[in-house]
Amino acid sequence: MGKRMPGADKPLYTSRIIKAGALLADTKTLLSHWDMMTSVQKNIERMRRENVFGKASRSRVEDVLAIFRQRYLTEQSVTRALVALVTHRFPPASLDRILYFHAARSDHLLYDIVTEFLLPLKMQGITDIDVYNVPRKLDR
Questions:
Q1: Residue 11 pairs with which residues in a beta bridge?
Q2: Which band of pLDDT confidence, cut at 50, 70 and 90, is reported for residue 4?
Q3: 2, 12, 47, 52: most buried, per Cβ within 10 A?
Q4: What residue numbers bound the domain in which 73 lies?
């Protein structure tokens, strides 16, 4: 299922990112419907019940909500700030970068790809990447 840290019980990398990707539009939908006066659990139940994402599959909604909980809902101050940015129409390109940051912060695989692979390439001026180079880098 994933790469393990030496001596660790849990895998360092999991396949969870495959189920989620960036989900920027869905993230903005979640944050625009968020009620700061209600608990995370109650908000999630309401999102599920109202199907604010318009997903056909209930299991897909569960996958998306689990990823959102991991990325954006563990720290109340982060959730509050993100809700404010979305509701006050923060510039989309800047908001996307903030959401990418939180996604990478919560997923070791995504974080390592960005910091150990993509950033060094960008620093060298390389912006076109062959998708087959990513697994080779991870193997190292």
A1: 4
A2: very low
A3: 47
A4: 16-105
CB 91 within 8 Å of CB 81? no
Cα–Cα distance for residue pair 88/133, rounded to 1 Å: 40
Lowest mean pLDDT among 14-18, 54-58, 107-111: 14-18
Q: What angle separates helix 58-72 from helix 24-32, to the nearest 10 degrees?
A: 80
Which pTM value belongs to this model? Answer: 0.73
Distance CA 112, CA 81 (A): 25
- CA-nearest of 18, 27, 32, 113 to 69 is 27
91, part of any domain: yes
Residue 111 falls inside a structural domain: no
On whether residue 120 sits in a domain, the answer given is no
The mean-pLDDT minimum among 6-20, 23-37, 113-127 falls in 6-20
